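Let's practice the habit of predicting before peeking. Look at the sequence and jot down your guess about where helices and strands might fall. Then scroll down.
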Amino acid sequence: MEVAESKSKKAGGRLCSTCNQRKAALKRPKTLEQICRECFYEVFEEEIHQVIVGNQLFKAGERIAIGASGGKDSTVLAFVLSELNRRHNYGLDLFLLSIDEGISGYRDDSLQTVKRNEIQYGLPLKIVSYKDLYGWTMDEIVKVIGLKNNCTFCGVFRRQALDRGASLLKVDKIATGHNADDIAETVLLNILRGDIARLSRCTLITTGEDGPIPRCKPFKYTYEKEIRLDYFSTECIYSPNAYRGFAREFIKDLERLRPRAILDIIKSGENFRISTSTKMPEQGTCERCGYISSQKWCKACVLLEGLNRGLPKMGIVRSRGQNNERTKDMKQNKGTKNIESKQCGTLDF
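Done guessing? Here is the structure:
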């Protein structure tokens, strides 16, 4: 009988290590288990449920905005959260929140995927655009700034836009589709940049608890390879040379050599301890728009002011004491040049 079973495995491939009945369809990168598709879906969803429960990510009655880009991670997150919310009776009100950066041929297509998700999962959708918030689209910004620093503008504006959209929805928390690969990349980037403040919090499963709206990452321990579903897969046309891309390739090389490397990097980030003598930025609010900021003006306002004044690189170049001087210069020029675009964070909804 054992001989017959062995011949069967050789003829039809390995059997699933979980059910030992169906043919294995994939190998899990973090456990190296051979598993069939049906068992994988069950195990995957159960692992996310355990992460949610074990870390107390949500409370019954909370309103949760799912950051939905139309990409693989956020699409799977929307499906899994809606499924687990129903199956385990979390008692959550779920919403989809999308940001339209104004990138022709990319974001307009991906938003169609999000709109399909709205119908498929029965979740209300809110779309907030850069044009409405800031008076600029990314297409317009790239024409002014070029391709070298455009990701700086988009990253800063998107982070704030998510919070602005979440405020409009009156949610208690934002859930994002950041996976284990993303977090490992961020740990590496913060080390390379010497960004102690971000390094100390980038591995936290919930961040921003001292800010306006906390964010959580249910996929913190989930490998990117394991996130599978129909999704919009085109990369942003403005990010082929983004700095993060180099960190991503390095992480992928490490994973090929040692699959556990991704979780080990996250574990290392969790174990970092910041010296008590290290001076950390003090959290305050932007004098202009009221958003959280460690400076007088938040980064979004600084970048937006530069765009509106025809000085797009004003918020990018770094020098000692620059922010204070820049703020002083802005105030001196406030009465001499009107801001044609909307101020940071204003909404006409």
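How did you do? The beta strands are 26-27, 34-35, 63-67, 93-100, 125-129, 173-175, 206-207, 215-216, 284-285, 292-293.
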